[in-house]
Amino acid sequence: MRIDILTIFPEMFTSILNTSILKRAIEKKEVSIFIHNIRDYTKDKHKKVDDYSFSKGAGMVMTIQPVADLIEKLKAERNYDEIIYTTPDANLYDQKTANTFSLCNNLMILCGHYKGIDQRIRDHYITKEISIGSYVITGGELAAAVIADSIVRLLPGVLSDETSALTDSFQDNLLSPPVYTRPADYKGWKVPDVLLSGNDKKIDEWKLKKAKELTKKLRPDLLDE
Ligand code: ADE
After folding, report:
1. Distance from the CA of 197 to the center of ligand 1, in angstroms?
2. What CATH number is given for 2-152 in this structure?
3. What is the CA radius of gyration of the chain?
4. N or C: which end of the chain has fewer CB within 10 A?
């Protein structure tokens, strides 16, 4: 898989791409992630990538030209399954969408900024708009990183059997049950007896029961889906 990320803050991705699962997936060539600096494509003599909004008092808006030129350049090089735009005014991201994205070959993610981007970019290039939650963060970079991470961990060969994405929360619309490690007794705080029993069937039953209890308590909406 290839993911192209279009941003005005490329440096925000340096540590994210050089850490943990994303780093390993890139090293193993399970994914290639390219970070493109939108500012490199502006034809403005002051290197500007934003301008005043025609709607008065609405703050600065990202201009069309640098973004359009960059998207056109990338689209001429390969076909993209989706061109994603990160923005709070969009459908909420979920595991189902991550699963669908993980089956794609080429994804482009445009990071939103300021008070947004000229609507004509959204109308003419964007195929999916995504919000990572009902709150506003300063820019779309963190949202793009969340999306990239959630996709890459699903790619075959990225996680080991032990950490398999199949057992993640949400994969079966259930939250994950609690987990414990040694010691079995920490100052009187005991691990549930069943986990020490060695009985795999009983342990699986306990895990499912706990997962259902937790989901019912914290995310009953998942049980309705
Ligand atoms: N940019 C600002 N807030 C965002 C959000 N909640 N999701 C995606 N992109 C954003």
Report:
1. 46
2. 3.40.1280.10
3. 22
4. C
